[in-house]
Amino acid sequence: MNNEHSADDHPHHDISKHVRRYMGVFLALLLGTVVTVAASYIPFKSNEVNIAVALAIATVKATLVAAIFMHLSAERWTIYRFLIITVVFAIGLFSLTALAFSDHIHR
Amino acid sequence: MEIPYTVTARPDTGLWNAKIGIWLFLASEIMLFGGLFSAYVFLRIGADAANPWPHGLLNVPVGTFNTFVLISSSMTMVMAWASLKMRKFAQYRIYMGLTILCALAFLCVKAYEYNDKFHHYGVWLKNGEFITGHLEENTPESLTILPDIHHEGRHFWPETEHGAPREIKKADIRRWSNFTPKFSPFFAIYFTLTGLHGLHVFGGMVVNIYFWLPGSKLYRTNPEHLANRVEVSGLFWHFVDLVWIFLFPVLYLL
Amino acid sequence: MEISASPAHVHHGEEHAHEHHDPGFLGKYVFSTDHKVIGVQYGVTGLIFLFFGFCLMLLMRWQLAYHGQPLPVLGPVLAKIFPKEMPGGVMTPEFYNSLGAMHGTIMVFLGIVPIAFAAFGNFVVPLQIGAPDMTFPRINMASYQAFFIGGVIMLVSFFCPGGAAKGGWTSYAPLADITDRAPNMFFTGQTMWLIGMVFLITSSLLGSVNFITTIIQLRAPGMTWMRLPFFCWAQLITAFLLLLAFPPLEAASVMQLMDRVAGTSFFLPTGLVVNGEIVNISGGGSPLLWQHLFWFLGHPEVYVLILPAMGIVAEVVANNTRKPLWGYKAAVFSALTLGFLSFIVWAHHMYLTGMGARVSSFFQTTTILISIPSVIILTALLLSLWGGSIRFTVPMLFATAFMPMFGIGGLTGIPLAFNAVVLYLHDTYYVIAHFHYIVAPGTIFALFAGVYYWFPKATGRMMNEFLGKLHFWPSLLFINGIFMPMFLQGMAGVHRRWYDGGASYDLAKPVLHWNAFMSWSAWLLCVSQFPFILNFFWSIWFGKKVDHNPWHATTLEWEAPSPPPHGNFLKPPVVHRGPYEYSVPGSEDDFIPQGKA
Ligand code: HEM
Ligand SMILES: [Cu+2]
After folding, report:
1. Which terminus of chain C is less hemmed in, N or C, by CB atoms within 10 Å?
2. Average pLDDT over residues A64-70
3. Residue A65 near residue B242 (C-beta atoms within 8 A)
C-alpha cells in the first residue's frame, strides 16, 4: 500500500537512541499522575471543570503511551485506518447513548 | 507449508501478520472497554436522588501507588523489547522480570483494596438516614456498626476515624450491604471495570511469564521473531496500562 | 480474550513438529488447523443448528395454529423429556417463550453467522485470494472450539431448572435480569445464555481478526484491492462489523451477568416492583442502557447476516450470467458505506422506549440513508442479469430468488424507519415478516446457493441437479406461504409474542385464519428440506466426479484442485486480471481465469 521507511527495520543504534525517549515518557507519565491527583483537590468552579481537567491530562498521558511506547508515532497507514474507524465508532457509542439524556423524558 | 510474513514484513503493507492481528484485537478491546465506559457515563448522568453518584469512596494513595506501578511496568516492558532489538539478552531477562513483578504487585494491591471494601458496610434507614462503617455485630434483630466519621471536603488520605458503636434495629433498616458490586451503581461499575482490567493484567502477566522463561528459547534460533512476539505482548501490555490511565481518575478522583 | 489472541503460540515448537507427522483422524477432522476443514466444521455444525432452530419454530407454529391442543406424535415424547414445560404434550406459555428466544438466538448466532461468515469465509476466502491458509491457523481452530462450546452451553440451557432463556433473542432487561432467579442464579437459562454469548462473541472476535489479517497480508501477487472478488470484500467488511460491534454486547453481557449473579443493578431502575413487591436492589440502573448496547451490536449484526449472502449471490450471478458483475466498484463502495452506516442506525429499534425526539430524528435520518447503498447493491445484482445468457443451475436458481426476496424485505424496512409508523407497527408480525424476508428467503437461500456452488470444490463431486430443483421450488413456494401472511397479520396489529397467536384478542379475529395456513407452510417447508439433506450426503459419496473448474469460473479458488490439498495450490498463484472476466470479446473461451497470464 505505501512504502515509507518501516518502523521495524531500525538499525540497532537507533533503538538505543529511543531508550532515552522512553525514559522521558516514563517521567512525564509519573508527573502527569501527580498533577492529576493534585488537580482533583483544587476546587474549580464546578465539578465539570475538575472532570475536564482530569480527562485532559489522562488523554495526554494515553497519547504518550500510544505514540511512544506503542510506536504509533511511526506506524503504517493500515493500522491508522483501523484505529480511526474504531475511535469514530467508540465516540459514536458514547455520544449517542448519552444523547438519550438530552430530552426530558428518559429512562 | 509455511504461512508467509510471520517474521518479516509484507513489502506493500510494511507489516508482519501478528502486528496487524494484535492491533485489530486492541481495536475490539477499545470497543469492549468503550462499552463499559459508556455504561459508566450513562449511569452517572442518570444517577438519581436514591442513588446519588458518590465521591471519595476509594483509597486515593493506594490507587496512585498502583498507577505508578503500572506505568513503571509499561516502561520496563518497552525496555525489554528494546533490549531484544539491541540483542542484549541478559538485559531483556531483567526488564521482563521487572515487568512481571510489577504486574504481580498491581494485582496484590488490587486484592488488598477489594478485601478492604468487602469489610465496609453501608446501611440505609427507613427514615432516610445513611450510615457507613465497620460491622461489629450482626444478630437477627439488630446490627452494630462502628460508624465512619466524615469531615468536610475532600481528603487525600482516607478517613479512618470511627465513632462510638451504634446499634441499629433491623426493623428500621431499608437495605444494608457491604461494599460489593450490589451496593450501588458506582460499586457495580467499579468492580466490573477493575475486575475486567485485572483479568487483562493477569492474562498479560501469564503471557509475559511465558516469554520470559520457556518462550525465550527462541532467542537462540530466531531473535528477531522473539522480539516481534515481545512487541506484540508489549502492545497488549501498554494498552492495559492505557486503560488504567483513564480508569484511575474516573473511578478514584472524580 | 487475553493476549493468546496474538499469534504468539501459532508456531509453538512441539505443535509444529506434530504437524509434520500423519495427523490421524483427530488431527485431521477434529483438531485441524486447515482453513478448509475448519470451514467445513463450521458449515456442518451451523447447518445442524440451523435445522434445530427451525424445529423449535415448527413446535411454536403448532401452538400458534392449534393453541392449547396436545402436540400430535411428538407431544408424548416431549412430555417425557420436559414434563414441566409440556405437560400432557401441551405447551406452557413459559416453554413457548423459551422456544421463541432460543429460536432467534440459535438461528442468528449459531446458524447463519457461523455458516455465512465463518464457514464460507474460512473455506472460500483464502482460496479466492490465493493464500495457503489463514494467517493464524491455531487461532482459527480456537475460534471454532469457542463457537462449539458456546453452542453446547445454549443447548444445555434447555435442561436448567425453569428451562432455557425466555427473554427473547434480545434479552431485554429488566425481564431477562430477573427471570428464574431462584433457586440458584447460576444454573438458569438466562445465565447460561449470557455465558454462551460470551463464548460466541469470543469466537467471532478470533475469527474476524484472522479474516482481516489474512485478506490484508496473504493476497497473492497481483491481487490488488480492485481485483478482489466481491465475496471477499463482503467478508472483509463483515469481519470489521463483528470485530467492532460485538464487544459492546460482550460488555453488556458481562453486566447482565453481574446483575444476575452478583446482584448489581446495571439495568434495573430504582424502585423496581416485581409481583407487587419492591425488589431488594440498589436500583439506579437503566433498562435503556441494555437496549443501547444490545442494538449497537444488533444492527451491524443484521448486516453481518446479509453482506456475506450478497457476496455469495454476486459470485454465483457473475458465473451463471457469463457476464462481468455490473457496477462492481459501485457495489464495493456501497458495501463499505453500508458497513460504516450500520454503526449509527441502531436506535431505530428503540423508537418506542421513550428515548426522546432528538435522538429519534437522528436515527430516522441515518436509517433512511442506509437504504441507499443496500438498493445500489441490489440494483447491481439485478442489472447483471440484463442481457446475459443465464444458465439456470441450482445455485443460480437460489441466487435469482434471493433478489426479489431481499427486495421485499428491504422495502418493507423503509416504513419502519419512521418513528410515527413504528408507533403502530413496532413489535407486530409486520416486523417479523420484514426481517425474515431478508434473512430466510434472502440469506438462507443465498447460503444454499453457496453450498450448491462450492460443494464440488470441497468434495470434488457435483450435487444432484434434480434433487436440487426438488429442493428449490417447494422451498420458494412454502417460505412465501409462511411470511407473506405475516405482513397482513402485522398490519392488523397482531403482536409478535402472543402465545395463542392472537385468539384471545378481538383485533386479531379477521386475520386469525392465516395461522393454520402459515403453520402448514412451515411444516411443508421442513419436508422440502429432505431432498437437500439426501442430496448432500448422497453426493459426498456418489455425486458426479468433476475436475477443478466445473462451473467454468474465473476466480482463483477454481484453479486449486478439487478438493484442494493442505496448502491449497499446486503452484503459487499469480493474478493478472479482475475477478469477473466473462465473455470477453475476442477471447476463445467465454471466461478468462484470474490467474491466466
Ligand atoms: C434496507 C433497509 C432497512 C431498513 C430501513 C430497516 C429498518 C428496520 C427497522 C426500523 C426495524 C425496527 C422495527 C421495530 O422494531 O419496530 C427493523 C427491524 C429489524 N430488521 Fe431491518 N431494516 C433494513 C434492512 C434490514 C436488513 C438488511 C436486515 C438483515 C437481516 C434487517 C433485519 C432486521 C431485524 C432482525 C429486525 C428485528 C429485530 C427485532 O426486533 O427482533 N433489516 N428494521
Ligand atoms: Cu436495525
Report:
1. C
2. 93
3. yes
d(CA B244, CA C386): 58
Ranges of chain B with pLDDT below 70 = none
Q: From CA C101, how far away is CA C460, in angstroms rounded?
A: 39
CA distance C418 to C426: 11
- Listed in sequence order, the residues at least 6 apart from A59 whose beta carbon sits closer than 8 Å to its beta carbon are none
Identify the residue whose C-alpha is closest to ligand 1 atom 28: C302
Q: Considering only the top CATH level, what class is B120-178?
A: mainly beta
CA distance B8 to chain A (A): 9
pLDDT at position C15 over 70: no
Of the pLDDT bands very low, low, confident and very high (cuts 50, 70, 90), residue A95 is confident
Interval between CA C409 and ligand 1 midpoint (Å): 9
Read off the C-alpha cell for B54.
Answer: 458518590
Angle B225-B227-B231 from CA coordinates, rounded to 5°: 115
Q: What are the cell numbers at B113?
A: 483494596
Cβ of B242 and A66 within 8 Å?
yes
ipTM of the complex: 0.94
Q: Which of A29, A31, A34, A48 to mutate to test the interface with B (most CBs of B within 10 A)?
A: A29
How do the domains of chain B map onto residue ranges? 32-45+56-117+183-253, 120-178
Rg (CA), chain B: 23
**How far is the centre of ligand 1, averaged over its atoms, from the C-alpha of C81 (Å)?**
36
Q: Per-residue DSSP letters for B108-171?
A: HHHHHHHHHHHT-EEEEETTS-EEEEEEEEE-SSEEEEEEB-PPSS--SSPP--B-S-EEEEGG
Which grid coordinates belong to C387?
442481457
Mean pLDDT of C188-201: 94
Residue B121 C-alpha from the chain's centroid: 22
The reply to whether CATH 3.20.20.370 applies to domain C34-272+289-559 is no
Across the beta sheet with B173-178, what order do the strands follow? Answer: B166-169, B142-147, B130-138, B121-125, B173-178
End-to-end CA distance of chain B: 55
Interface test with A, best of C293, C359, C364 (most A CBs within 10 A): C359
Residue located via cell numbers 478514584: B252
| Confidence category of residue C221, pLDDT binned at 50, 70, 90 | very high
Q: Would you state the cell numbers that stand for residue C355, as one nine-digit string?
A: 428515548
User: What is the Å distance from ligand 2's center to C331 Cα?
Assistant: 21
Q: Any idea which residue has 488520605 for its cell?
A: B157
Asked if residue C422 has its Cβ within 6 Å of ligand 1, the reply is: yes
How many A-B residue pairs are in contact by the CB < 8 A criterion?
141
B32-45+56-117+183-253 CATH fold: Four Helix Bundle (Hemerythrin (Met), subunit A) (1.20.120)
- Please list every residue in chain C whose beta carbon sits closer than 8 Å to the beta carbon of residue A95: none
**Ligand 1: does its nearest atom lie under 6 Å from the Cβ of C367?**
yes
> The whole model's pTM is what?
0.93
| Closest approach of A104 to chain C, Cα-based (Å) | 7
Reported as half-sphere exposure (CB side, CA atoms, 13 A), residue C484 has a value of 10
- Grade residue A13 by pLDDT with cuts at 50, 70 and 90: low
Count CB-CB contacts under 10 A for residue C254.
21
Q: Which chain A residues are within 8 Å of C269, Cβ to Cβ?
A: 107
C-alpha cell at C308: 456475506
Would you tell me the crossing angle of helices C189-217 and C137-156 to the nearest 10 degrees? 160
Torsion sign over Cα C496, C497, C502, C504: negative
Looking at the complex, does the CB of residue C251 fall below 8 Å from at least one CB of chain B? yes
User: What DSSP character marks residue B178?
Assistant: E
Residues B229, C254: C-beta atoms closer than 8 Å: no
CB neighbours (10 Å) of residue B57?
18
Residues B33-46 have pLDDT tens digits of 999 999 999 899 88
